[in-house]
Write a structure and sequence with these properties.
The structure is a single chain. By secondary structure, the chain is of the alpha+beta class. Among the domains are: 127 residues, Immunoglobulins (Immunoglobulin-like), CATH 2.60.40; 104 residues, Immunoglobulin-like (Sandwich), CATH 2.60.40. The chain has 15 helices and 33 strands. The longest helix is centred in the last third of the chain and has 20 residues.
Length: 701
């Protein structure tokens, strides 16, 4: 440390204990840092490039766990890090080591390029005492630093939000870089960036598809795991967040200019809003890159390991690993709850986004009694006046005991429904899924969501997502092909439902190719016409393949980028037709529970056999019959809208003859047809081809 050229002649003064982080005010900067167990915290001032430490100032406190100080004369642009003094007792969960420079958890801008080094650990690697040893080396020259940002400004995107109703949502999950990296017509300078999502070529594609809401894979500042870095791979998906208030610079056109990154992201959201598109962020508040108790001290661990993370109840020196990533954020602690809410609110108000998808969301409701749907975090989230207005989406499972919590999230939460995925795949792939299971999932999984005033839209239906096979690969592979990940094909799910129909991977066999195409089209039609909230995985609309890799988290290359060069335009046209049909017919997107009443022709939903008769109890369990009809009925909401829609499912390899209810029926969709649009009137029966879903509509006479 050098004091030969001090930046500030004034001493640090007592400051305010809120807001947290570093805030410009009153011709200076206020610092507020939480640590329940630290004895002293220092602010270390660096030069503009973050290379040389110039001064250290001790903060005052703690007051209710918050250390604070006001530095007169400081301003936006100040580069700093933190050093925390306190007990070094790893066996008790305390890892204080002032030789380790720490990133402020509330950093708005981050300086430096991270690289894994032994100096980042509080203990000496490979020492016989392990974590009980103590490393005295200063990691300051290599650590990430925070740069003080100017005052937060409300984004213009906050004033032009589309605010789509739940019944109108069609989600589209995408990776910012992967979507545009190879996109035709995209300027080279914009490829793979936030700005690319707001380019006219991207917006035209979104509008053609008929999606309403983009669900972006993580865009908060992340770092790569050491195992990936050692193999010259990266965490492409971004599920390893360290800077919860910063956009990931890897996705920006100007990576070394934090102010430009902020402006680029905000402009992206504003432009998408102006075109009727919402933005939802995938966020990771369940773990951090500091890993297990043997991991480094980068930020949270060095500031207060015992508070920020959950620990094994009878061994406070060990992190509780409910995430599979080594540690679990202790969201049940009030100060950690505040941190998560502050971060979410920042992305809504300052960055302009419209909601969040929470990775491994049961962690947010974990208490000493296990998962609780009325945990304090959920209560605080639902009462927050800003966050109460945005979309809340849960990935309803984590890696801990009783970690599968589908259907048990509170309030306005929507949830990823993997039971829908497995039922639809299994039904069309011929894997033994019954008609009853398909019917239950097709009508928004009432067994899971019809309680506590929840609506059908709570069920987010999907066929594939970033984690797993693409839809094209579901019908092209029978086993995973993850060797490029460097884990000897051990990573990724082994039991994922898929089928190659006779040939692994690409084929020149026309019979196999036709069957794959029919099944894929029928599955897509099932997704976009089902009750609940549909979600597309980017690339599925035109046949993107990852060559059988069902865990491409580290593939920042053509495997993980959308293959626009081989896009199947006819399949994209099918998706566009399906979303248009969904929009045009209210009975296909009702956000109210259907009322199936046996023998009542006025009921909202009726289930029919191929002979036109109502499904009886024994029919639901008859494995020899798989064809199914679904009759949806409702009142007319506008001119030309159908009072009834009939959906006919034929997963068999042979054509099936369906008897139709009385009415003036017209084919609105044939999933197997090259031109899926409306055809002429149909009388009393219809012959359905193999692996086909057909929709008929009946307008008033």
């Amino acid at each position: 440390m050098s004091n030969s050229h001090p930046l500030y002649s004034a001493d640090m003064r007592p400051g305010r204990t809120e807001p947290m982080g570093a805030q410009v005010r009153d011709d200076g900067v206020n610092f507020a840092v939480f640590s329940r167990h630290a004895e002293r915290i220092e602010v270390c001032v660096f030069d503009a490039n973050g290379q040389q430490e110039l001064q250290r100032f001790s903060l005052f406190g703690p007051h209710d766990g918050v250390f604070h100080g006001f530095l007169p004369g400081a301003s936006a642009g100040l580069v700093y890090g933190l050093r925390a003094h306190g007990p070094y007792q790893p066996q008790e969960g305390h890892c204080f080591n002032p030789n380790k420079l720490l990133l402020d958890p509330y950093a708005r801008q981050i300086v430096g390029r991270f690289e894994w080094r032994a100096e980042h650990h509080a203990y000496t690697l490979d020492h016989p005492l392990g974590t009980l040893s103590y490393d005295t080396r200063d990691n300051g020259p290599y650590a990430l630093k925070a740069r003080v940002a100017g005052p937060d400004r409300v984004s213009a995107a906050c004033f032009n939000r589309p605010r789509h109703a739940a019944s109108e949502l069609v989600l589209y999950e995408l990776h910012v870089k992967g979507f545009s990296q190879l996109m035709p017509g995209m300027p080279e300078a914009l490829r793979g960036s936030y700005a690319a999502l707001a380019h006219p070529a991207s917006i035209a594609h979104f509008k053609r598809l008929g999606v309403t809401t983009l669900s972006l894979l993580p865009v908060q500042y992340c770092i790569d795991e050491p195992a990936l870095a050692a193999k010259s791979l990266c965490n492409y998906w971004g599920y390893n967040t360290l800077g919860f208030f910063c956009p990931d610079p890897r996705l920006a056109t100007q990576r070394d200019d934090p102010s430009a990154m902020l402006a680029e992201f905000r402009e992206m959201v504003t432009t998408l809003h102006a075109n009727g598109l919402e933005v939802v962020l995938d966020v990771v508040y369940n773990h951090t890159p500091e890993g297990s108790e043997q991991g480094p001290c980068l930020s949270f661990r060095g500031l207060d390991n015992a508070t920020w993370y959950r620990h094994v109840s009878d061994d406070p020196g060990r992190c509780e690993n409910l995430t599979g990533c080594g540690n679990t954020v202790n969201v049940a602690h009030p100060q950690v709850t505040q941190f998560v809410l502050d971060s979410l609110r920042y992305w809504v108000q300052v960055m302009g986004v419209d909601g969040f998808r929470f990775d491994l969301a049961p962690v947010l409701g974990r208490t000493d009694l296990g998962y609780q749907s009325d945990a304090a975090f959920f209560t605080a989230l639902r009462q927050d006046p800003v966050l109460a207005q945005v979309h809340l989406i849960a990935e309803p499972w984590d890696g801990g005991p009783r970690g599968y919590q589908l259907g048990r999230f509170p309030g306005r939460f929507m949830e990823w429904n993997d039971k829908f995925r497995d039922a639809v795949r299994g039904y069309w792939l011929g894997s033994g899924v019954t008609r009853g299971e398909l019917a239950r999932r097709f009508t928004a999984s009432s067994d899971l969501f019809h309680h506590s005033q929840r609506l059908p839209s709570a069920s987010i239906n999907f066929l594939s997502v970033h984690d797993g096979y693409t839809l094209a690969d579901v019908v092209s592979y029978s086993t995973k092909h993850n060797h490029a990940n460097g884990e000897h094909n051990r990573d990724g799910r082994d039991d994922e439902l898929c089928a190659n129909f006779g040939c692994e991977g690409p084929t020149d066999d026309p019979a196999i190719a036709e069957r794959r195409e029919r099944v894929r089209r029928a599955m897509m039609a099932t997704l976009l016409l089902a009750q609940g909230t549909p979600m597309l995985c980017a690339g599925d609309e035109f046949g993107h393949s990852q060559q059988g890799n069902n865990n491409a988290y580290c593939q920042d290359n053509p495997t993980g980028w959308l293959d626009w060069a081989h896009a199947q335009d006819d399949f994209t046209a099918l998706v566009a037709h399906l979303t248009a049909l969904r929009r045009s017919e209210p009975v296909l997107r009702r956000d109210a529970w259907q009322s199936p009443l046996a023998g009542d022709s006025r009921c909202d939903v009726s289930w029919l056999r191929a002979d036109g008769g109502a499904m009886a109890v024994d029919d639901w369990h008859d494995p020899s019959q798989r064809a199914l009809g679904c009759l949806l009925q409702g009142s007319v909401a506008g001119p030309g809208e159908a009072t009834r829609c009939l959906l006919l499912f034929n997963p068999a390899q042979a054509s099936t003859r369906f008897a139709l209810p009385a009415g003036n029926w017209q084919v609105a969709l044939d999933s197997s047809a090259a031109e899926p649009g409306a055809r002429g009137l149909v009388c009393d029966h219809l012959l359905l081809g193999p692996h086909t879903l057909t929709v008929l509509r009946c307008t008033p006479t």
